[in-house]
User: Fold this.
Amino acid sequence: MKLGDVANAEAAAFGKPLEGVRVLAVEQMQSLPFATQMLARLGADVVKVESLGGGDQGRGSQPSVVDESGANVGATFLRNNLNKRSIAVNLKSLEGQELVLSLAEKFDIFAENGKAGGADRLGIGFDAVSARNPKIVYLSISGFGNGDSPYSDMPAFAPIVEAMSGIYEFKRQGDNPPVVAPVGALGDIGTGLFGLVGVLAALRQRDRTGEAQYVDVAMLDAMVAMTDLVTNYWSLGLKGGAMAAMILDGFRAKDGWFIIQVAREFHFERLATCIGHDEWLTDERLAQRQGWVDHMDDIIRPGIEAWASDKTKMEAARALGAAGVASGPCSSDDDIVADQHVDIRNMLVECPRTDGVEQPVLVPGNPIKMSGMAEGPETRVPHHGEHTTEILSTELDLAESAVDTLREQGIVA
Assistant:
């Protein structure tokens, strides 16, 4: 889907579920920007507060593109900031803090994802904001929460909390180093999703009670929840990365790899029959699930890969799927960009470039499909501080000359 297009256009007349909800977000990088982009896609008005200078750290990530103003805009920023407006404010100044607090009076949600305690030190913590807006929903995302964590003084990015959740060590093989960030920014996106759920619940609670709500989401907490098998398996006696006995592996086809999951006996029967190895069903070595694991390399893998040797990875997966065995191809980047499902479901948004490169930037679309909501139109990511004058003028009734004075004083940009 191209930037500005609309899918499910017949639902446009219904509007979007969060229309009228206003979000003021002091945010950077990915965890909170991902959550607020989802809120914007659901209809919320999102104003992004950036620092002076370089703004959101995500703007400085690599790879990057050059925007119309000649500034480099990094991939992290491009993925997480559609449909927002940007205001640049010097929060290290009392005047800048007062501007943000004044704006917070006009919004439903205030969100920040600085280091624990950072918002309080800047004078924009929950107590300060709720004093100005007694019905505010305040979302705070940080590495380790705003409580008494022993890690509160540690900086955190997605791979840090992923490692601390135990999943890297759980999956590490032999004496090899851990595979870092194996699924992209899981620590950011997973945390952002929990933040999104928390905000929606808090809005409901605020409407019920009429009181401000504080939502505190720690990245490490989110990762402990998402990597639940680490602690759950430990409690059931499977320690040190031990997995339950099953076939959960990758197998080679003629053009790449495909995955099979077989965790029940009737699935094993279907697998054996599908690939022409009915003798496995009477082989005592394979009568128990542990036997599937013990004989993976001498029986199971050779049998499956011989069967798949003349098939593409998709052909093998489809044949197994037709037999009732869960299987899927290991898609390359080329595969997923060209995938028909991804196209039909509008899961890639094409953002045109302005620096002479023909290939548009691809940003994941909205995975939440609703019958009564049109997807799009989406607007490009904002330039740094692009809407500063507009927002201060319309929200705080500041004259353009007053905004110019604030800019000259280094309060806004």
Remarks:
- The chain has a mean pLDDT of 96.
